[in-house]
C-alpha cells in the first residue's frame, strides 16, 4: 500500500468528496476515520461517515466518534445552511446503512491504537475542527513520533468565511487549532481558504461525475444545498472542494505549492477570534514584531485543472 492515512472529519458535502477520494485511491492505506462536531452535530457527522464508507465499499475502515463540542468555549455553530441540516443536502437518509459497528474506543483511543500499530509514519488529515487532534497530542505526547505529517484544511491567510477574519474549522475551536498549529512540533501543511477557493468545480464537472455511474450519481446528489450556497459567492453554478484539496495533498505530497511561514491563531473574544495569523513579511526570527508561532507549510497555489482531473479520476476509476 501507499500512504498510510487517517482522516478526522465532520461530513459535510466537501468531506464526502474527500472521503471518496481517499477510499477510492488504490495507493492509500486508509487506516481509520474519526469524527468531530462541525458542519452538523456529532451524531450526524458520525452517521454520515459510516454510511459514506459503506457507499464506497470500505466497511473495513473503523470509525470512532470524537468531540461533540470545542475544548473550552462551546460557542460553535453548525453550518446546516451550507450543507443541509443532515450535512448532505437532505440526502443522508438515502445512503446505505452502515454494517460495521461504530468503534467503541472513541476517536482519541482509536487514533492512538492505529498510530502505535503502524510500521511507518502515518499522515493525518484533519478536515474539521481540530478538537480531536488537540486532545490526542495533549493526552499522548509520545505519539508525535508516529505521525509523518498533518495536512489540515483550515484557516485563511487573507480571508474568512464564518466571520470576516476566521475560517469555519479554526473558528469552531480556536484553542484546539492553536494547540495543533502553534504549540506542537509536527510537520504540518495548512490548506487555507485562499487555495480551496481556487479549487472550484462547476455543474458541468458535477454532471460528468453523476454520469459516471451509481457512486458518482450518489455524490452529486449530495450537492444541491452546497451549490446553492456557493453560486452567488462564485458567480457561477458550482461549489468549492475545500476538504478534498487537503486530502489530495495528503495522498500525493506536492499536489499543492507551499511556502513556510510563522503561524498563530487568535483566541481572544473580539471580532478576530479564530483568525489564523500567517506572517508573510519575511522578518528575521529575532524581530520582536514577528508572529511568535512556529513555522509551518502553507499551501497557496496549485494546478487547478490537474486537481479537478485527479479528483474525478480517482472517484470514478479508483486510479
Automatic annotation (TrEMBL):
KW Hydrolase (keyword) present: yes
SUPFAM superfamilies in alphabetical order: Nucleoside hydrolase
Keywords assigned: Glycosidase, Hydrolase
One GO biological process term: purine nucleoside catabolic process
One example GO MF annotation: purine nucleosidase activity
Residue span, Inosine/uridine-preferring nucleoside hydrolase domain: 5-308
InterPro entries, A to Z: Inosine/uridine_hydrolase_dom, IUNH, Ribo_hydro-like
GO cellular component terms, A-Z: cytosol
PANTHER family, sorted: INOSINE-URIDINE PREFERRING NUCLEOSIDE HYDROLASE (PTHR12304), URIDINE NUCLEOSIDASE (PTHR12304:SF4)
Name of the protein in its database record: Nucleoside hydrolase
Species this chain originates from: Amycolatopsis coloradensis
